[in-house]
Amino acid sequence: MATTSLPDALAPLVEAASDPGLVRLALSQLSDDQPGLADRLAADPALARALMAVLGASRSLTRLCRADRGAIDVLADLDHRPAPDWSSPEALSGWKHLELLRIAARDLIGLVPLEEVGAALAALADDVLSGSTALSQGGEGRMDPLAVIAMGKLGGQELNYASDIDVLFVAPDRLGPDRLGPDRRGADSRGADSRGAEARARQVMAVARGCWRVDAGLRPEGRDGPLARSVPSYRAYWDRWAQPWEAQALLKARAAAGDGQLGSAFEEAASAWVWGRPFGAEDLRQLRAMKERAELALASRGLSQRELKRGRGGIRDIEFAVQMLQLVHGRADPALRLRATLPALAELAQAGYVRPADALELSDAYRFLRIVEHRLQLVEEAQVHTVPDDPGARGSLARVLGYRDDAAGTALGRLDADLTRQQAIVRSIHERLFFRPLLEAFTAPVPGSPGIAGGAGPPPAQVMGAGAASDRLAAFGFTDPARARAAVAELTRGLTRSSRLMSHMLPLLLGWLSEAPDPDQGLLALRTLASRPHLRDRMIEVFRDSPEAARRLCRLVGTSRLLLVPLERNPDLLGILGRSLLPPSRSRAELVEAAGAVGGGHAPFPAAAPAAPFPAAAPAAPSP
């Protein structure tokens, strides 16, 4: 079939597009479908630029432009947000797709930063939920009050193009405080008072799913629990059965649609529960173990480097670190109780909980990784987080992101290099983030003193206070802040090369010690080794040559004081830690016996110790 020829005025714009051949073909097809479009584009360069950006980036939005003639009008006036159409489920779905097109076009041509894109997508999802609530009906024609609570990225108003929208539903409390028996997690909330709300919640989801993927799996008891609960029922569940990951998820809870009074009551109850409870070492240990299991599962599929969200140095590294620090310090510092990642990170830096330079690098990396993720998802509005393995597909992604080939290199090469660099930065900071500010707090000079390790430290406004330092140490299992500070001072004393190396490594060492059963004992053991010159020199040498040996040493000395004895008597044992500890040819019993002989009769592994190097995994939970 013949295609409409394009005006010469459009040629430079087509050639500048991310995929000129694809854009030229799509423009010709659109011009065939809509006579006069080519001339309209030639007369309106802003419209032509927006349309070509969309055609080069998204097959799904290209199909929308062909199927809905209103799409071109939307692209011609990107500053105008049409009012939501709640007249029918079909009208709501049509409006949603056109508004998504407008948001994507503004994003692709660079009119708005990432934060505004996420907020605009969240506002779109809020309107979808509000329209779905308005279109739903309760039983027997009555409207049962219902609030829709946004969770996850929707709650934080930092939504992706293809995110699920995570929701909870709040029903009225007509029976008074929920009567929950000790073995029943909310069965009474399914009574007559909530049946209408439960039915209406299902209708809301049915309508909203015509526009978006909607997930209510973060509710209490997951998919086995009631869909709608009263606020007292939520409180009763949280007080008795909630897991640490549920506190993490509630950081972003926000009333998004439906009954405003119910929504506000839920927000107040959730905030009181999250910030009114201590966040202890076991809570943090569980959340870190959950994240580690997710990383191991990803690594088993060979996706650690290509997965933007959960891979090493990915988006989740940044989000997780920010949320953990909020949970640790937010109880005492209300300014940290922010839902969105970037504002929370900025506040953490401003208050001294994160080094400003680290926060800046993490913010830049977060924006970069999220933008790459957005471009992947726009292709087919699919929930994609993995950079394609195929060089051709990855090259297309690079060009949509604005990279171009030139004499100095290819678009694909530049994208790959930037991805590798940003992921390395994120992982490096993530592994030191929790403890590097502690060292600055410990080494900041006290008035009238020269400070520890000869360093003046950062300006006082950027150093966390003693109370915050104690909170962070306690959350990571260190129970004696004064003793920890003295140990850090001992380990970093002087201006020798070895002390400088120890200062650089201490954030990692403290992190590894926090994973051991007794972090305080482990830190004292390192201090003991460092206090004896012949042991310190050997330890520093081993640390310099093998970070894995340092990690294993932290795990050993943080398990039992007895495990330090053989190392004190034979410093050469430190070198063994960098090698495989369990050769297939030798049983664990043989290794215990051999280690006992070398150490003068003190076996470094108690006979009753489990063979597994880490605690057993806890049951999996949804990822907030």
Give the helices and strands, then pairings:
Layout: H1 11-15, H2 20-33, H3 37-43, H4 45-57, H5 59-67, H6 70-76, H7 89-108, H8 114-135, E1 147-150, H9 152-155, E2 165-170, H10 192-208, E3 214-215, E4 228-229, H11 231-241, H12 244-250, E5 254-258, H13 260-276, H14 281-300, H15 315-329, H16 341-350, H17 356-378, H18 391-400, H19 411-432, H20 436-443, H21 466-475, H22 481-491, H23 497-514, H24 519-530, H25 533-545, H26 547-557, H27 565-569, H28 573-576, H29 588-598
Parallel strand pairs: 2-3, 2-4
Antiparallel strand pairs: 1-2, 1-5
Helix pairs in contact: 3-4, 4-7, 6-7, 7-8, 8-10, 11-13, 15-16, 16-17, 17-19, 18-19, 22-24, 23-26, 24-26, 25-26
Average pLDDT for all residues: 84
Main sheet properties: 5 strands, mixed
Q: How many H/I helices? A: 29
Q: In whole angstroms, how far apart are the ends?
A: 50 Å
Low-pLDDT regions = 176-193, 446-461, 581-620
Query: Given the helix and strand composition, which structural class is it?
Result: mainly alpha
What gross morphology would you assign? globular
What's the number of extended β-strand segments? 5
**Share of residues in strands:** under 5%
Estimated helix fraction: 55-70%
Alpha carbon gyration radius: 29 Å
Account of the 3D structure:
The protein has helices spanning 11-15, 20-33, 37-43, 45-57, 59-67, 70-76, 89-108, 114-135, 152-155, 192-208, 231-241, 244-250, 260-276, 281-300, 315-329, 341-350, 356-378, 391-400, 411-432, 436-443, 466-475, 481-491, 497-514, 519-530, 533-545, 547-557, 565-569, 573-576, 588-598, and strands at 147-150, 165-170, 214-215, 228-229, 254-258. By secondary structure, it is mainly alpha-helical. Strands 1, 2, 3, 4 and 5 form a five-stranded mixed sheet that branches. Helix 8 (114-135) crosses helix 10 (192-208), helix 15 (315-329) packs across helix 16 (341-350) and helix 22 (481-491) runs parallel beside helix 24 (519-530). The protein is globular. The two termini are 50 Å apart.
